[in-house]
Amino acid sequence: MLNRDIDIGPDGFKRKVGRPFKGLVEEFSKEPHVPERRSVLRAFKKYYAKREFSKSHSERMYIENLCSGFTDFEKEWIIHYVNVCKQTQSADHYRKKAIELENLSKREIDSIQNKQNMIDANFTFPTDRPPSLKTGKYNYDPLVGDPCYRYNKGVKEKFFKNVFLAYLFIQFAYYNGQTFTKKKLWRVENKTNEKMRIIILKDIIWEFISLGLKTIERNPEIYGNFKRKIEYQK
Question: pTM (2 decimals)?
Fold first, then answer.
């Protein structure tokens, strides 16, 4: 597991030991700091969106490292979700783009969206290869898109119950956590707000890391490669 008392990755993202997540809420009430939560997950999506279809040597090496230690089947699904991050944009953007490219009716687009929204909250490890994604087609995936654009507790839990997304988020935090928080501070007007903002963002990132780790550790027989990869990065 990642140790909260040390830098968790080469990006130097650090977190004080034992600090509880601020603003715990009741089971069915609205979660705090929703704009910040969306921004963290959008940064996650953007981080991987830049890596899809890249032919540069550095990006190929990154993908190879990301997938090292996994079976070919697991690698296919990891790369599939990296590509999903590229093609999943805001629902409104894809709604408009689908009409332009496919000349679909609003009813047809709503039907596609409704089918995609029927994702089981209890993730089970897939037995089939991932589906093909076609560039330029209507590929909004609510499992990735809804936490970024329509955030609520339910879509967050679906996201982190998916072991591939849980793993990819932990890698995002490992390599890019501190860079993300620093980029978010340039709009802050004073030092007091700056300190509070960074505390909120780090707490959210650690909450999400904890959810990802919980998923990876819940079934060591099936998710053993994921657990070994995370432990190797301690």
Answer: 0.73
